[in-house]
Amino acid sequence: IHLRPPVGMEAAPVFMRFVEDELTVYAYAHEQYGPASGLQMGDEIHRIDGVPVETLVDSLKVYYGTSNEASLLRDMARSLTRGTGPVTLGGAGTSGVGEVTRHRPVTRSSR
């Protein structure tokens, strides 16, 4: 699981999921770094480092062994911001477009 792209032990300090085909922030992964990122619950992320989310999903889905589209999107939402250094997220919502610092460790939630 840790070898499928994107790789890295750092990620944006928020939890995201696909809601009506839009990558959406639904919780903070860290009580300090999450709010400091400027992202807010309900923000939709349309681009990651300038690449449309739809393009990322299409190019990376071959690395995810899932039985259906819902499980593919669930798994991908957990890892799309992995990497090192800052990540630029663009989208709609209160925060708009901006650079977000990735943090370690990547935390997982049962949410």
H and E order = EEHEEHHEE
Q: What is the percent of helical residues?
A: 10-25%
In one word, what is the shape?
globular
Arithmetic mean of pLDDT: 84
Residues in β-strands, percent: 25-35%
Query: Which regions contain 5 or more consecutive residues with pLDDT less than 50?
Result: none
**Separation of the first and last Cα atoms:** 19 Å
How many β-strands, per DSSP? 6
Broad structural category: alpha+beta
Total helical segments: 3
Gyration radius (Cα, Å) is 13 Å
Largest beta-sheet characterization: 6 strands, antiparallel
Descriptive account of the structure:
The chain is α+β, with helices and mostly antiparallel strands and 111 residues long. The protein is 21% helix and 28% strand. The chain contains three helices and six strands. It has helices at residues 33-36, 53-60, 69-79, and strands at 14-19, 22-28, 44-48, 51-52, 86-92, 98-101. Strands 1, 2, 3, 4, 5 and 6 form a six-stranded antiparallel sheet that branches. Strand 3 (44-48) and strand 4 (51-52) form a beta hairpin. It is globular. It starts with 13 loop residues before the first strand and ends in a 10-residue tail after the last strand.
